[in-house]
Amino acid sequence: MTLLLLAGSGEARQIAAGLAGRDVIASLAGATRAPADLPVPMRVGGFGGEAGFRAFLAEAGITAVLDATHPYANRISARTAAVCAALGVPYLQYLRPGWHPEQGDQWTEIAREDDAAAHIPPDATVFLGTGRQTLDRFANLVGRHVICRQIDPPDGPFPFAGGEFLVGRPPFSVEDEVALFSRLGVDWLVVKNAGGVASRTKLTAARQLGIPVLMIARPPLGDWRRVESVAAALDWARSL
Hints:
Blueprint: E1 3-6, H1 10-18, E2 24-28, E3 42-44, H2 49-59, E4 64-67, H3 74-87, E5 91-94, E6 107-110, E7 125-128, E8 145-150, E9 163-167, H4 174-184, E10 188-192, H5 201-209, E11 213-216, E12 226-227, H6 230-239
Parallel strand pairs: 1-2, 1-4, 2-3, 4-5, 5-12, 6-11, 7-8, 7-10, 8-9, 10-11
Helix pairs in contact: 1-6, 4-5
């Protein structure tokens, strides 16, 4: 049995650690330039579409796929599930639970990034905790001061007027986020409902500071098997 672990979520590291010593290959898409090593053999980069993915499964002798990508990597998950179903390869998605508002939170859910402009007034300072991959979808926020935090230094200038990049590598404590948002004068926080404990600190900081949050809804779920805990994902992998 050779398991392909599609990494990309923080919990993928825990899954990899739990499967260390087994026949596992972890794959990272390469969104981060210098990803931390995992305790199993790794490959970095895309597969080259569906045909390339099928070829990799055959060449590497993959007999099962555990998808622990980011909750918003829905196109990757849909393609992977479809290919595995067609080839008869066991497939499981690990999808951590989303966040839910707590007392004192001021959240508004939106369906798409470009919906944010309808809620955020002109001249507001907006902190994007959504990463650089979807930054162009916020182009209609021109007129606001937009700050986009990303892990790697930017390759070029901000893609629209009034914005700036902020480089930072997680994890960030609640105290770190409170200090940062206060220093920047953040009026609005925009995030994806990625779930997880580590990245919730920005939401806790927003609650403490009374900052409203625009929460981008998760993509629709596909019709395939999934679990919501690392333990369940490990149980599945070990049962193969």
